[in-house]
Amino acid sequence: MSMSGNLRKVGSLRKVGNLRSVRGLRKVAGLTRRGPRVDLSHPARSPLGSSVVKCVTYRKGVRQTPARDGDLVEAVGQVRKHDDGFVWLGLHEPTEREFAGIAELFDLHPLAVEDAVHAHQRPKVERYGQTLFAVFKTVCYVEHAELTATSEVVNTGEIMVFVGKEFVITVRHGRHGSLGPLREELEGTPDQLAQGPAAVLHAIADQVVDDYLVVADSVQADIDQVEAEVFAPEGARGADPGRIYQLKRELLELKRAVVPLGRPLQILAAKPMRLVAPEIQAYFRDVDDHLKRVTEQIAAFDELLNSILQAHLAQVTVAQNEDMRKITAWAAIVAVPTMVCGVYGMNFDHMPELRWQYGYGLVMGVIATACVLLYRGFRRSGWL
C-alpha cells in the first residue's frame, strides 16, 4: 500500500464509533514523556480514562517523542514514512467500538479482533496475512492468610498480541499482568528493542512464563502445608479434605493456562516466520524450555495431591477401624456382666446359689475378674 493510501486510511479514523475524532484519540493514545509507571492491577480499567494505556514509537530501539505528544496517527505515519521503527500500542479491555478504529488503521483481521475484544481464548499463535496474532494466559498467585476449602489460589487473565512489521498491539484482560514494568525494562536495553516487534513478543512470552514459575513455587508451598497437616499425628482428624480438593481445582486452572501454550511456543521457536527472525527464535526456544519445566511441575503437583488425598482417605479408614475395634472391645467387656445378670434374672424357683449367703459377693467378684482379664487382653492386642 502506498504512503498516500496509508494516510487516507489513517484519516478514516475520524468516522469511527467511540473514537469520535483524531483529536480525541490523541488525548488517550499514550504519554511519550516518561512518567509514573502504569499499573492496572486495580479494578479500574485505565487511569487515562480509556482502554488505551500507552502508545509509544521506537526507532532503532530508542523511544521517540512525536511532534504532537501522544499522537497515534502521527506515530503510525512517521513509522510508515521512515520504515525503520514500530509503534507499541497498549490496550486494556477495549470494547468493540473502541477497537474498531485501531483495527482499521492497522488492517487487523476481524476474527483476531473478535478474539481480542471478547477474550476467554486458549493460548495460541495464528497468522493473518502479514500479521501475527498470539494469545497468552496470564496467572497470578492470590495471597491468603489461611488456605480454606473456598480459597482462591490462582487468578487468570489474558494478553493478546498483534505483531506486524511496523507495530505491536497488546490487549490485556484481567486485573494483573501489567506490561508497564516490562516496557521500562525493554527501554533500558535498546539493542533488544532494535530487533523489532518480534523482540517485544518474546519479552511478553518470557514474562508470562516467568510468572508461571513464580505461581508454581507459591502453589508448592500450599501443597507442602497441606501435606504436613495430613501426615501430622492427628492428620486423619485435623486435615480438611476440602482444602485438598480446592488445591486440585486451582491447579487445574493453572494447568489450563500453562499446558496449551506448549504448541504455540514450539511454533514460534521452530517454524520459519517472516516476522520472527532466526535470532529471536533462539530465545523462544529458551522460553519453551522454561514452560516445559512448569508443565512438569504441574504434573508432579497433580500426582502429589492425588497421593495426599489417597493417604488422607486411608488414614480416615484406619482411624475408623481403630474406633470400631475399641467399640467392639468395650462391648465384649460389658457383655460379661450383662450375661451373668441375665442368667440370674430369670427368676426360677430352683436355681443354685440364689439363697447362698456369699452368692452376691462371689458373682460380683467373678464379673470384676472377667472384665479385668478382658481389658488386659484387649490392651495387649492394641484394641484399647
From TrEMBL:
<dbReference type="GO" id="GO:0015087">
    <property type="term" value="F:cobalt ion transmembrane transporter activity"/>
</dbReference>
<keyword id="KW-1003">Cell membrane</keyword>
<dbReference type="InterPro" id="IPR045863">
    <property type="entry name" value="CorA_TM1_TM2"/>
</dbReference>
<keyword id="KW-0813">Transport</keyword>
<dbReference type="GO" id="GO:0050897">
    <property type="term" value="F:cobalt ion binding"/>
</dbReference>
<comment type="function">
    <text>Mediates influx of magnesium ions. Alternates between open and closed states. Activated by low cytoplasmic Mg(2+) levels. Inactive when cytoplasmic Mg(2+) levels are high.</text>
</comment>
<dbReference type="GO" id="GO:0000287">
    <property type="term" value="F:magnesium ion binding"/>
</dbReference>
<protein>
    <submittedName>
        <fullName>Magnesium transporter CorA</fullName>
    </submittedName>
</protein>
<keyword id="KW-0460">Magnesium</keyword>
<keyword id="KW-0472">Membrane</keyword>
<dbReference type="Pfam" id="PF01544">
    <property type="entry name" value="CorA"/>
</dbReference>
<feature type="transmembrane region" description="Helical">
    <location>
        <begin position="358"/>
        <end position="378"/>
    </location>
</feature>
<feature type="transmembrane region" description="Helical">
    <location>
        <begin position="327"/>
        <end position="346"/>
    </location>
</feature>
<keyword id="KW-0406">Ion transport</keyword>
<keyword id="KW-0812">Transmembrane</keyword>
<comment type="similarity">
    <text>Belongs to the CorA metal ion transporter (MIT) (TC 1.A.35) family.</text>
</comment>
<dbReference type="GO" id="GO:0005886">
    <property type="term" value="C:plasma membrane"/>
</dbReference>
<dbReference type="InterPro" id="IPR002523">
    <property type="entry name" value="MgTranspt_CorA/ZnTranspt_ZntB"/>
</dbReference>
<keyword id="KW-1133">Transmembrane helix</keyword>
<dbReference type="GO" id="GO:0015095">
    <property type="term" value="F:magnesium ion transmembrane transporter activity"/>
</dbReference>
<dbReference type="InterPro" id="IPR045861">
    <property type="entry name" value="CorA_cytoplasmic_dom"/>
</dbReference>
